[in-house]
Amino acid sequence: MKYKKLLLLFFILFNTFAFAQFEKNVLILNSYHRGFLYSDNIIKGIEQSFYKRGEVDINVLYMDYKRVNSKLYLKKLVDLYSLQLKRRQYDLIIAIDKFAYDFAIKNYNKLFKNEQIVYSGIEEFDKSKLEKYNLQNRVHAILSRRDITDNIKFISKVIPKLKKLYIINDSLSSEKTNIYVEKAFKQMNKRFEVEYIQYSTLKKLSDEFSVKKLNEAIFFVKFYENEKKNLNKDSEIARFLNSSKLAVFATDDLFLKKGIVGGKLVPIVKLGQETGQVALDILDNKIDFMVRKSIAYDYKFDSLKLGEYKINPYYYYNNYEIVNKPLDFFEKHRTFLEILFLLFPLLVLLVIGLLHNIYSRRKTEKLLKERIDFDETLLNAIESPIFWQNKDGRIVDFNTKFSSMIGISQENLYLSSLRKLRGIKRVGNLLLALENYSKKPENNSHFNFEIKDGKKRVYLIKQAKYKDEKSENSGLVTILTDITKEKEIEQEKERNQEFLIQQSKLAEIGEIFSAIAHQWKAPLVEITTIAQESFYTNEDNNKESESYVKDIMTQVKYMNDTINDFQDFIKPSNKKTIFDVHEAISSLLKIVEHNIRFNYIKININLKTNTNVMVYGYRNEFMQSLLNIINNAKDELVKKDFNNRNVNIEIFNDQDKLLITIKDNAGGINEKDMENIFNPYYSTKEDGSGIGLYMTKVIIEDKMNGKIQVKNTKVGACFTIILEQNYENTRT
Q1: How far are the Cα atoms of 19, 21, 23, 55, 505 from residue 14, in angstroms, in the given order?
Q2: Per-domain residue ranges for the chain?
Q3: Sheet containing 247-250, strands listed edge to edge, beginning at the edge strand earlier in sequence
Q4: The domain over range 383-479 is classified in CATH as 1.10.730.10
Q5: CA dihedral 422, 426, 427, 428 (to 10 degrees)
Q6: 3-class DSSP state for residue 451?
Q7: Residue ranges of the PAS domain (predicted)?
Q8: Domain 574-732, what fold?
Q9: Which of 125, 250, 472, 513 keeps 20 to 30 A from 495, CA to CA?
Q10: Spans of the chain below 50 pLDDT
Q11: Global pTM value
């Protein structure tokens, strides 16, 4: 443990010593105060160079020469620095500008020991002072000079019609600016008026140059002190330069982008960078001689000012730099684009994800649309009208059969309420049927409905409630099944059943009548035999007796024929046959002739010429149908107290149909009974069964594919039977 502690202590001491040997200390004597733009930019350049090297500790002493300048101040400053620097060893001294340089070499022996000095400034470098203080081998110089002559020539070139140039310099007398101006005039072989401004104020200058003057310009060298020897702030100088209505040219880049056009400029930050680099070389023992170095100029111009005064540097300089350009899109949004570039991979992934999501969504939408189209096609393919109602009674979906059924377009039907459409006849009928169904479903499950063209249909109602668990929407689904054909089949079965029952009854009556006929025929035979024996055994036979016998024989034959005809009439037909309608009607009238004649009714048959009277059907059943009509006519005629009671039967062809009309003069049928006389069990008679005309309609329409119609004439009723004649082997 003891050895570990000693090892750690040795390591710390070694690193401290090594770091102390490696770190360099540099003292910067700044002629001016903190915030003075010129010296601050030089220090900025020095720090940039030192930053690359690292391990350089900088201490800056601000001498504030521009604001305090007296012999007493200098004496006090020497005393102060002597105390500050007494216990501090520096590896290098940097003097910024002339005041710090003069102060350092004059008081070198009091303040320093053997440190090297690097002078950085724009002014002329006076070597004689080094010899005076025996510092020839201690001082290095990084210099730059304001090029008055070349800038004058440049101004004259870019403003060809220049008449007057204002030169602003608060050190005209010491720097002898006029000498350099005259030198430029000689080189140009051209002169223009020059006004030198050394003592003034920024306010006066701002007022003087607030108005634009044609073919005049300003050459700004420096103006740190006003006429009262007060220091001008850099911000105030920049404000004046920027507000000037005359083009302002300069010798350094301190106020570039702050109001000057530009020119051949001393780059102040570069001056500091070069000073810092020379200082590093000295610290690293890379220089063993005295450096005397001048830095290159920058040719820079403000883009906005060039445009404002329509100045083109190309006429004088080939290589130059334009600053303060209007930002292009990239520069204007550089930060955003850099962030975008950093986020680009994430954005790419996001875009890919979005594209995949869009693709998946579109694919899902396509599948959903296909499913919806399929469901819609399937829904519309269903023959039954279907519609959905939400809990408020609004129609949210339906198929085309439903909209066609009630005769309302799909656009007007969607989200409508049946109650609001009740005024439309079909909707009103449907709504009434649905209301009846909701009250008693078991008794009102189907209803009759008249669709377009007056056609009547029978619909079966089925309803079911639905609820969407996700959206919590609920409502009612109604399916209206068209059962018209089923009802017709059912009615057909009922009619067939009744037809069979009727045939069965007729068969039973036929059997009974056959037994009666058998009983009747035996006495008739006996009567015939007795009459003949009496005639032939009587010796007194004469013509009168013969006449009686003939009358008896005639009546017996008539009775026998009547029994046979009636027996054939009530016998049901086993199958359809081709029969003669005229013959069938004549046979029927022969059977009922006695009853008709007894009631003083005259029946007339009018068969039109060349009428095809052959039809295909049930002969006896047809005769029974006709008998029902004739009996009804007879019943009505006997109620009338008159002798002229007629029934006219007319038989004729119309195209390929056979028409039979039965007209009477009994006064006609009541209008309210007209629609119901063919309905089963409907009768206007007190003791009527209501089955006669119903069976007539069944036989004519269902069994013989015909039609039966009824109407009133001026004198009575007219029944019309229409029978098809489309069959083979028709006989005329």
Answers
A1: 8, 11, 14, 17, 141
A2: 23-145+267-295, 383-479, 483-572, 574-732
A3: 193-197, 164-169, 216-222, 247-250, 262-265, 298-302, 321-323
A4: no
A5: 50
A6: coil
A7: 378-413
A8: Heat Shock Protein 90 (3.30.565)
A9: 513
A10: 10-21, 508, 511, 513, 515, 518, 729-732
A11: 0.48
CB 713 within 8 A of CB 663: yes
CA dist., res. 25 & res. 150, Å (int): 40
Q: Which residue has the tokens 């007022």?
A: 207
Model confidence over 326-349: pLDDT tens digits? Answer: 877 777 777 887 887 888 888 888
What's 703's DSSP letter?
I
Extended strands (E) in 7-156: 24-30, 56-62, 92-96, 116-121, 139-143
Q: Whole-angstrom Cα distance, residue 342 to residue 353?
A: 18
> 275-329 pLDDT, tens per residue?
999 999 999 888 877 778 888 899 999 999 999 999 988 878 888 899 988 877 7
List residues bridging with 252 in a β-sheet: 266
Q: Which of 433, 418, 117, 78 is nearest to 291 (CA)?
A: 117
What are the structure tokens assigned to 70, written together?
């007296």
* Tokens representing residue 618 in the block: 């049930």
Beta strands in 279-398 (DSSP E): 292-294, 298-302, 321-323, 386-390, 395-398
Query: What is the identity of the amino acid at 149?
Result: T
> Mapping DSSP to helix (H, G, I), strand (E, B) and coil, where does residue 116 land?
strand
Q: Do domains 23-145+267-295 and 383-479 have the same CATH topology?
A: no
Superfamily of domain 23-145+267-295: Response regulator (3.40.50.2300)
